[in-house]
């Protein structure tokens, strides 16, 4: 079949080439026609015109056209373009351009295709294609058909996937798969466009290591001779650096005034009596950009233990080797001559560092905890370099979700969702990451089998909090594998949805029962795994045979399966008897099970508590967002942000910290864990000597910081955050011990950073974390659940996507969330679709919600936004962003009125590039009113680039008049989508605009539609009609032919069932007699 299709394709290409050559020959002849005798040409014109007209009517031949000089010039240009395209390598884009050029040549020459002459070829192609499709359909097996349906469903799921894990899940676009990673140029301007992933102060030390003895005796030289020969390059450096991690690069800032001071000795000073020295408070410094470096295949970062020469105590540091990046993207020169002004700003050591192509040394932070965090950040960049190298070796394109998750702090979340499984690339990623734990590992929609999953999990870190392997090719064997990996990796949340686990079989039922009865994981997701009533009976039987079930409270979700009331009763009875401390069994999106049926089940199963059955989705527990959490609990949570800050303490009750009770600022190390802000008392290192080879000063704490609240560790539970005079004012209740928080003492800390960017990052993170605590308090007070989008956004504090769609949000939580959004300059997209937003909610939306950001998308589709709503407040809310690339208002009942036209006009006035008004009930009155108001306006709307008006009822005349008035005043408007308005063509406009009549919007809400797995159901066994009916007679076929046909169908069913059982690993059933 493939050979036949290739032959037809070649014939079609040859015919098109012949047609183009003939047209080009005819055009060349017409070019030479003006050079002939004009009189002879005029005499023949009358005869030839009548003959060609008759031939064109009969055979579709083109008529002779006299071209002007401009048309001749245009024709020659098209010919040159076509000749150039023929010389290029064949590809789809080149073929499309060739067809366009051919079409333009035909239009210019006034020619039409010869339809009748090529009709037999077209009919033959149609017949051949129909036969090929029919034969292909016959050759398709049930497994192949099921696989195609599965891929189509997965593609739709990926199109509707809107959330991102810790701001790192890339949005999967329609028809393009996962977004590809685009490497920025190696310039300072491009690095500054990327967000700051981590920032802090480091101490760089380089040692003289060139005097190491080599293998040959004659190559060895004394150290003094090496210093004389190599010059200043071998001098040891010791300097403070402010380092920012932006994407794959590290930007280095230095303080030009931070130079070592030499001690001045005098006899008078030695003879004086020793007096107490007053150390002035340290002030923030001004940092200036010096250079950039990357950790690629040429660099490394590893942990080392160094020793303080004064005290002899060891401390942790990072040995680093990296490649420097020149300011203009070129390779750095070996030596660089600075101008007098520039040279005076930096020291010789700083200029030597910037002029080097590669550098190596030892860096260390102020505390060992921060040093280890920096090591993790650098290892993430190194893993990214190895990921790019592995993709290059295996001819794969690097993808955005993987790159973004490796840039994340840690990285604490590895996002491989939607990324095709590749064994070598996955091994390169996990073997290069050296982490004690992972918050989440997303491996869904990867077409991965059980063997591939085992290969992937063999190289992950020691602990994984959340593992998502949804929508893969995992069978019942994965249950035994995960039963071994869950205790080993400490997995607390396991998502196995959208996999065929064969729950009706013995192995599948036993594996599910063991997973439900085991201690790990605490949350088990078994949605859309083809659990039926028979599977519930098999699982219940296996649960009764378990000898030592776990006593840990557990949550299991079996929603979106084919479970009825009978199967639920059997399963609930087994769970209630076997697992007395079972937490909740979630049954979302099952039409047969409602609150009434659950009440009946609870009556028949008295051991089951009402709280153990729920029709809602399981709530994934978030990290600590409760201000009443114990300090010991907060200390066990990961640090969201950490670094050195200047602080002024102000106690409102007793003066509880005597050494630093004044208002003078001092330097300390801070960490944000949960809702607690912790402060470690570390002496500042304001002065140092170049001759020293250690970073530790005498009297400074060594080793790890003690986890006790006293002189070394202080903390407050954050209650309010504000920005006052370039300082952050943080107030909260004082932490007195590991188990108690003061109810009366409230402390106020005034924080100031060494750079304004670092201060802004701290203020943003503290504000978002405080918003999460307030929303959690409101949820507990009103007895409602914390919105999942709010919890995800406020726990990580580094998400660029706020996903609130699909679930209503209370007014209290809505107000608090957007109070934090106003300070979030990292935010890129907001999803507020299907939230039932009405006039009361719209009035509460802040008018300056997005004043600090440039939004890529704001989705307000499928809400209750109408004329009666507060449209003025909505305009201020949507238009508050610096720029909004896409505003979606699809599915809102706006209606057909002049008020809606005024609302749309006010939206266009703001900085919105693509405005989507699909299926909003717009009509002729709206178009006329908008046309009138636009023509009355004398100003232009320069930001609008696309307008979508699909699925409305605007007539063609009204649409034409509205666009004629709108296009001249929108110079950047390039695309208009008009599908579903009752017409398929529209006239020309004053300016060339792309008019699209293809459907590109969703008619139903994506968030509310439940996803059900498409599985191949086993056909029912055909029973030969030999059993007696209820009336007493045996049922027999009416004729011998029908009886023979029934036997034939039974034999075919047995063969198909044997093949199906061998494919899915189950025992085929037998046909009853």
Automatic annotation (TrEMBL):
<feature type="compositionally biased region" description="Basic and acidic residues">
    <location>
        <begin position="1"/>
        <end position="32"/>
    </location>
</feature>
<dbReference type="Pfam" id="PF13516">
    <property type="entry name" value="LRR_6"/>
</dbReference>
<feature type="compositionally biased region" description="Basic and acidic residues">
    <location>
        <begin position="40"/>
        <end position="50"/>
    </location>
</feature>
<keyword id="KW-0963">Cytoplasm</keyword>
<protein>
    <recommendedName>
        <fullName>Leucine rich repeat-containing protein</fullName>
    </recommendedName>
</protein>
<dbReference type="InterPro" id="IPR032675">
    <property type="entry name" value="LRR_dom_sf"/>
</dbReference>
<dbReference type="GO" id="GO:0005856">
    <property type="term" value="C:cytoskeleton"/>
</dbReference>
<dbReference type="InterPro" id="IPR001611">
    <property type="entry name" value="Leu-rich_rpt"/>
</dbReference>
<feature type="region of interest" description="Disordered">
    <location>
        <begin position="1019"/>
        <end position="1042"/>
    </location>
</feature>
<feature type="region of interest" description="Disordered">
    <location>
        <begin position="112"/>
        <end position="132"/>
    </location>
</feature>
<feature type="compositionally biased region" description="Basic and acidic residues">
    <location>
        <begin position="121"/>
        <end position="130"/>
    </location>
</feature>
<dbReference type="InterPro" id="IPR052410">
    <property type="entry name" value="DRC5"/>
</dbReference>
<keyword id="KW-0206">Cytoskeleton</keyword>
<feature type="region of interest" description="Disordered">
    <location>
        <begin position="1"/>
        <end position="69"/>
    </location>
</feature>
<feature type="compositionally biased region" description="Acidic residues">
    <location>
        <begin position="51"/>
        <end position="62"/>
    </location>
</feature>
């Amino acid at each position: 079949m493939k050979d036949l299709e290739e032959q037809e394709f070649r014939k079609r290409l040859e015919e098109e080439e012949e047609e183009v050559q003939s047209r080009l020959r005819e055009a060349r002849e017409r070019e030479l026609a003006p050079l002939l005798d004009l009189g002879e040409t005029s005499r023949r014109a009358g005869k030839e015109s009548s003959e060609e007209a008759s031939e064109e009517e009969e055979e579709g031949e083109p008529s002779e056209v006299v071209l002007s000089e401009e048309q001749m010039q245009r024709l020659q240009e098209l010919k040159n373009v076509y000749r150039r395209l023929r010389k290029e390598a064949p590809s789809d884009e080149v073929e499309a351009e060739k067809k366009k050029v051919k079409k333009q040549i035909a239009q210019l020459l006034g020619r039409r295709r010869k339809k009748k002459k090529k009709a037999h070829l077209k009919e033959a192609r149609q017949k051949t294609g129909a036969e090929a499709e029919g034969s292909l359909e016959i050759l398709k097996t049930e497994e192949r058909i099921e696989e195609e349906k599965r891929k189509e469903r997965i593609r739709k799921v990926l199109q509707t996937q809107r959330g991102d894990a810790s701001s790192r899940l890339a949005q999967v676009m329609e028809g393009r798969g996962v977004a590809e990673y685009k490497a920025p140029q190696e310039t300072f301007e491009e690095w500054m466009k990327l967000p700051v992933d981590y920032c802090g102060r480091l101490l760089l030390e380089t040692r003289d290591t060139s005097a190491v003895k080599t293998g040959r005796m004659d190559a060895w030289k004394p150290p003094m001779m090496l210093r004389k020969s190599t010059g200043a390059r071998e001098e040891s450096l010791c300097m403070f650096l402010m380092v920012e991690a932006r994407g794959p690069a590290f930007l280095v800032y230095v303080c030009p005034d931070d130079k070592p001071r030499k001690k001045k000795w005098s006899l008078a000073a030695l003879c004086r009596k020793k007096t107490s020295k007053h150390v002035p408070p340290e002030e923030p410094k001004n940092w200036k950009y010096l250079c950039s470096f990357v950790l690629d295949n040429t660099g490394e970062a590893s942990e080392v233990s160094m020793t303080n020469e004064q005290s002899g105590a060891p401390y942790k540091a990072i040995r680093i080797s990296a490649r420097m990046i020149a300011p203009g993207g070129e390779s750095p020169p070996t030596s660089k001559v600075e101008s007098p002004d520039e040279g005076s700003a930096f020291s010789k050591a700083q200029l030597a560092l910037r002029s080097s192509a590669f550098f190596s040394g030892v860096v260390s932070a102020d505390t060992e905890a921060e040093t280890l965090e920096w090591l993790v950040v650098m290892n993430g960049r190194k893993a990214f370099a190895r990921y790019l190298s592995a993709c290059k070796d295996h001819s794969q394109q690097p993808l955005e979700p993987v790159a973004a998750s490796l840039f994340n702090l840690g990285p604490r979340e590895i996002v491989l969702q939607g990324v095709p499984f590749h064994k070598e690339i996955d091994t390169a990623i996990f073997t290069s990451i050296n982490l004690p734990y992972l918050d989440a590992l997303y491996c869904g929609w990867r077409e991965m089998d059980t063997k591939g999953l085992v290969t992937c999990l063999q190289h992950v870190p020691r602990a994984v909090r959340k593992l998502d392997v949804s929508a893969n090719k995992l069978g019942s064997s994965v249950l035994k594998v995960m039963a071994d990996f869950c205790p080993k990796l400490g997995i607390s949340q396991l998502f196995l949805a959208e996999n065929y686990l064969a729950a009706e079989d013995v192995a599948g039922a036993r594996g599910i029962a063991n997973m439900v009865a085991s201690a790990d994981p605490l949350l088990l997701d078994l949605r859309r795994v083809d659990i039926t009533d028979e599977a519930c009976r098999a699982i219940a039987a296996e649960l009764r045979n378990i000898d030592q079930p776990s006593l840990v409270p557990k949550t299991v979700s079996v929603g979106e399966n084919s479970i009825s009331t009978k199967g639920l009763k059997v399963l609930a009875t087994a769970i209630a008897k076997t697992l007395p401390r079972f937490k909740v069994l979630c049954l979302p999106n099952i039409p047969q099970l409602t609150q009434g049926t659950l009440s009946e089940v609870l009556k028949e199963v008295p051991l089951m508590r009402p709280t153990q059955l729920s029709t809602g989705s399981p709530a994934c527990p978030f990290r600590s967002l409760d201000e009443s959490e114990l300090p010991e609990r907060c200390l066990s949570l990961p640090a969201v942000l950490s670094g050195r800050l200047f602080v002024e303490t102000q106690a409102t009750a007793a003066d509880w910290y005597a050494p630093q009770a004044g208002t003078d600022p001092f330097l300390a190390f801070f960490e944000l864990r949960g809702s607690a802000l912790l402060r470690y008392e570390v002496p500042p290192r304001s002065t140092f000597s170049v001759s020293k080879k250690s970073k530790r000063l005498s009297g400074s704490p060594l080793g790890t910081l003690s986890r006790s609240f006293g002189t070394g560790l202080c903390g407050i539970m954050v209650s309010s955050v504000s920005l006052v005079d370039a300082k952050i004012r943080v107030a909260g209740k004082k932490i007195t011990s590991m188990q108690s928080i003061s109810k009366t003492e409230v402390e106020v800390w005034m924080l100031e950073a060494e750079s304004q960017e670092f201060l802004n990052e701290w203020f943003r993170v503290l504000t978002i974390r405080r918003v999460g605590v307030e929303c959690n308090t409101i949820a507990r007070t009103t007895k409602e659940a914390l919105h999942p989008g709010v919890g995800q956004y406020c726990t990580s504090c580094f998400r660029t996507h706020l996903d609130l769609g699909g679930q209503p949000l209370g007014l209290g939580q809505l107000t608090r969330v957007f109070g934090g959004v106003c300070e979030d300059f990292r935010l890129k997209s907001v999803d507020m679709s299907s939230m039932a937003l009405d006039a009361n909610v719209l009035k509460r939306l802040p008018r300056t919600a997005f004043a600090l950001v440039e939004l890529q998308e704001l989705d307000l589709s499928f809400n209750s936004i109408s004329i009666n709503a507060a449209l003025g407040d909505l305009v201020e809310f949507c238009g508050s962003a610096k720029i909004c690339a896409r505003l979606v208002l699809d599915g809102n009942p706006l209606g057909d009125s002049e008020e809606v036209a005024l609302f749309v006009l006010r939206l266009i006035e703001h900085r919105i590039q693509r405005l989507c008004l699909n299926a909003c009930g717009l009509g002729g009155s709206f178009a006329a009113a908008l046309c009138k108001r636009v023509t009355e306006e004398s100003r232009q709307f320069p930001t609008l680039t696309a307008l979508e008006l699909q699925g409305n009822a605007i007539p063609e005349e009204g649409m034409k008049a509205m666009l004629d008035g709108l296009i001249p005043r929108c110079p950047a408007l390039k695309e208009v989508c008009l599908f579903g308005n009752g017409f398929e063509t529209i006239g020309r406009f004053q300016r060339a605009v792309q008019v699209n009549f293809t459907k590109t919007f969703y008619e139903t809400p994506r968030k509310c539609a439940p996803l059900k797995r498409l599985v191949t159901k086993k056909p029912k066994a055909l029973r030969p009609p030999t059993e007696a009916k209820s009336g007493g007679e045996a049922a027999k076929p009416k004729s011998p032919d029908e009886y023979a046909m029934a036997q034939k169908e039974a034999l075919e069913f047995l063969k198909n069932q044997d093949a199906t059982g061998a494919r899915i690993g189950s025992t085929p059933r037998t046909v009853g007699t």
